[in-house]
């Protein structure tokens, strides 16, 4: 059974893995004996801290990093940089797993939502993941790689939320993109899925006001907010042979929120 969950010999590229849910996912990959994890990052200190955490999980895992700001003006140049450097730095010359995790949010009523911030959310959460997936996925097809692509979706892939219209647009779009792409690529050897986190203790949820936070916990059937380690098992499942007949699915990691 352990062989089904092994990622030995594989190389993964993950965006936004220096903290939060992305770091939890990277911990899962490391625990499954993956050969190499390639991380995107913006600043050195969070990267150093993340690698230290991951090496404690598995000191044998190799790491590579790509410094990039996903909110930079030229998104095509950003995608090109990630694509080219990921293959150049891969220990095998290949990318087996792509995890589109990086994301941002901004909370405003629509009528007062600054257009620049609105557009930034759409770019980072939707446009760049779509373009990066096209680039990496096309390479997987060319090299006949049995690839795994995972997106970080959200409860907002299913619900509208409050004062989060830009975020809801992107997470709804990511979920539909995942499904459509799964229909196109699954028969060609690439499995495409998503993970939808519930309310997780991360920097992204720190922006919620206290009154809103107080209404969340009573609605979670499991009785607690999630933490980043709750994503270790789900990401290993979706990127390993344990889920080889699973594609086009959104795995909810929400403590039962959507079942309520």
Please tell me about this protein's structure.
- With 260 residues, the protein is α/β, with parallel strands linked by helices.
- The chain has one domain: NAD(P)-binding Rossmann-like Domain (Rossmann fold), CATH 3.40.50.
- The chain is built from seven helices and seven strands, in the order βαβαβαβαβαβααβ.
- It has a seven-stranded parallel β-sheet, with helices on both faces.
- Helix 1 (20-31) crosses helix 7, helix 3 runs parallel beside helix 4 (115-142) and helix 4 (115-142) packs parallel to helix 5 (165-185).
- The longest helix has 28 residues, at 115-142.
- The two termini are 33 Å apart.
- The mean pLDDT is 95.
- This is L-rhamnose-1-dehydrogenase.
- Keywords: NADP, Oxidoreductase.
- Belongs to the short-chain dehydrogenases/reductases (SDR) family.
Concise synopsis of the structure shown:
This protein is an alpha/beta fold. The protein has helices at 20-31, 44-57, 75-89, 115-142, 165-185, 210-216, 232-239, and strands at residues 11-14, 36-41, 62-67, 97-100, 148-152, 191-197, 250-253. It has one domain (2-255): Rossmann fold, CATH 3.40.50.720.
């Amino acid at each position: 059974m352990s062989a089904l969950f092994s990622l030995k010999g594989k190389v993964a590229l993950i965006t936004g893995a220096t903290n939060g849910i992305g770091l939890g996912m990277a911990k899962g990959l490391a625990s499954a004996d993956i050969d190499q994890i390639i991380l995107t990052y913006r600043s050195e200190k969070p990267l150093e801290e993340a690698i230290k955490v991951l090496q404690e999980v598995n000191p044998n895992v190799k790491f590579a990093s790509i410094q990039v700001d996903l909110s930079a003006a030229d998104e095509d140049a950003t995608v090109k940089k990630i694509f080219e450097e990921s293959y150049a730095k891969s220990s095998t010359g290949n990318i087996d797993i792509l995890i589109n995790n990086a994301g941002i949010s901004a909370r405003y009523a629509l009528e007062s939502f600054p257009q620049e911030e609105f557009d930034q959310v759409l770019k980072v959460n939707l446009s760049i993941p779509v373009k990066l997936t096209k680039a990496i996925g096309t390479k997987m097809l060319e090299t006949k790689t049995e690839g795994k692509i995972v997106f970080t979706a959200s409860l907002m892939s299913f619900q509208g939320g409050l004062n989060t219209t830009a975020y809801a647009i992107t997470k709804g779009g990511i979920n539909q993109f995942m499904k459509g792409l799964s229909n196109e690529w699954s028969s060609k050897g690439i499995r495409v899925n998503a993970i939808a986190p519930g309310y997780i203790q991360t920097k992204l949820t720190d922006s919620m006001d206290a009154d809103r936070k107080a209404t969340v916990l009573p609605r979670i059937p499991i009785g607690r907010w999630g933490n980043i380690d709750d994503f270790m098992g789900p990401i290993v499942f979706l990127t390993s042979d344990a889920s080889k007949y699973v594609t086009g699915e959104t795995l909810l990691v929400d403590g039962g929120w959507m079942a309520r």
